[in-house]
Amino acid sequence: MIIALKKDIRKEEQEHLIAWLESYGVRTHISEGEYQTVVGLVGDTTRIDTDLISGLDIVQSVTRISEPFKKANRKFHPDDTVVRITDRAAIGGGHFQLIAGPCSVETEEQMETVARAVQASGAGILRRRFQTAHVPL
Question: For a designed S-S bond to 31, which of 38, 71, 98, 105 qualifies (C-beta 3.0 to 4.6 A apart)?
Answer without folding.
Answer: 38
